[in-house]
Amino acid sequence: MTTTTVVHLLRHGEVHNPEGILYGRLPEFHLSETGVRMAELASEWLSGRDIAAVYSSPLDRAKETAMPVADGFGLSIRLDERLIEAANRFQGMALSSRSMTDVHVMRRLYNPFLPSWGEPYTDIVQRMVDVIKLVRKEAWGREAVCVSHQLPIWMARRAAERKRLWHRPDRRQCNLASITTLAFEDHRLVSVGYSEPAARLYTRRRAVPGA
To answer: In total, how many domains does the chain have?
Structure first.
């Protein structure tokens, strides 16, 4: 008899960021009011499931997204550095289309396959695979939630689907408070699902490397 275990990768909700900064791993970037509601909708979507563990990136926006999920199931949030946002050399900058003509920006964009502007895709995949294996083991036969960020979740999904890692950032299917679901039979991945519990709250957002 096989054992089914499910790991949900939940992206954080909208962040209060009026200056449009690429916040990356910077501290003190919290959910906006809309982001809080997004987290609540994600928690509602997960209600009724057999959630055994809630893990989160240590960044504020991820922890705040994890809170209603953990509270709903009476669980504590376990922080894991491997779920953190991808490192990005543009962190702290307010990028725009005009930025693409800036020589200091352009010289970081020479290799989109690595990518040259941030943490290598292969490194992101490895840390995400490691934490997913850990969480799957803990939640064996049940379900778990890992709150992370767009690029790490997207890399985990592309690796799971055996697709090339390099891609166009504006074509990632990993919207705010979206849930990417990995279902396993024993240790074998059998399906990848995607849901957007907070879709009605989305606003147009600019896609930048590592956002």
So the answer is: 1
